[in-house]
Amino acid sequence: MVNIAIVSCIHGDMENLMKFVDKISLLNIDFVICPGDFTDFAIPKGFTRRDIGKLIIEELKGLGKPLMAVPGSWDKEIIDLLKKEKVSVHGEGKVIGGIGFYGYGGAKTPFNTPFEPSEGEIELGLEKSYNEIKSAGVKIQVTHAPPNRTKMDMIASGAHVGSDAVREFIEKKQPNVAICAHIHESRGVDELGKTKLINSGRFPEGYVGIIEINDSEMTTKVINLI
After folding, report:
1. What is d(CA 130, CA 175) in angstroms, rounded to the nearest whole number?
2. pLDDT value at 216 more than 80
3. Domain limits, the chain
């Protein structure tokens, strides 16, 4: 049995991050995934987004488990930091214990956030990273943007605002699990073909995604640590 915790959309909330990370440490987990938005529009005086990203990475690494991450739409300034810290699966793949992690970060918004890659850039990034793990027995995709026209990308009005490129890549490659974030109100699970989808919502509100891998069986759920 392998257990994976998903911690997303932290948005620089260090206080709640530390509170809930302590609770994650009580769970029996083997990997930690962060599908982006380490930082936010507002940055505390005297800090940079890179400073905030570094603090959050250190906190998550403190769980003592392998950490994989992609940048969110606010995280352009920490893309190089994720790579330097050896936690990036943004446009690159990692295979650990027979599980292949690959992905691409960023997402479109109406707010002109720092990192909003085109659909073509997302497609190319996913293709490159997937090719680095394609021989792995279990494949897990990590994107910040949710796949379009699923339960993962619905805003409050009911409109779908996800990525066609992410959806099409899932349909083509059918990874075992596709992790996403970005749309906080669409936390939960869904399926697209044979692929299980999960959006774990905002971690500072206590939500964490859990993937359980038992041989070839995959279980996905979102729990609240409060």
Report:
1. 10
2. no
3. 2-224
146 DSSP β-pair partners: none
Q: Single out the residue of 41, 38, 48 nearest to residue 88, CA to CA.
A: 38
User: Strands 94-96 and 177-180: what pairing?
Assistant: unpaired
Cα separation, 55 vs 62, in Å, equals 11
- CATH architecture assigned to 2-224: 4-Layer Sandwich (3.60)
Q: Are strands 94-96 and 99-104 parallel, antiparallel or unpaired?
A: antiparallel
Radius of gyration of the chain (CA): 16
**Whole-prediction pTM:** 0.97
| CB proximity list for 58: less than 8 A, separation 6 or greater | none
Between strands 31-34 and 188-192, the pairing is unpaired
CB atoms closer than 10 angstroms to residue 210: 18
Chain length of the chain = 226
Tens of pLDDT along 11-57?
A: 999 999 999 998 998 999 999 999 999 999 999 899 999 999 999 99
Q: Show the tokens assigned to 72.
A: 């969110």
Residue written as tokens 């619905």? 154
Q: Which of 115, 190, 105 is nearest to 141 (CA)?
A: 105
Once rounded to an integer, what is the mean pLDDT over residues 86-106?
98
Q: Coil, helix or strand for 168?
A: helix
The residue with tokens 């936390």 is: 187
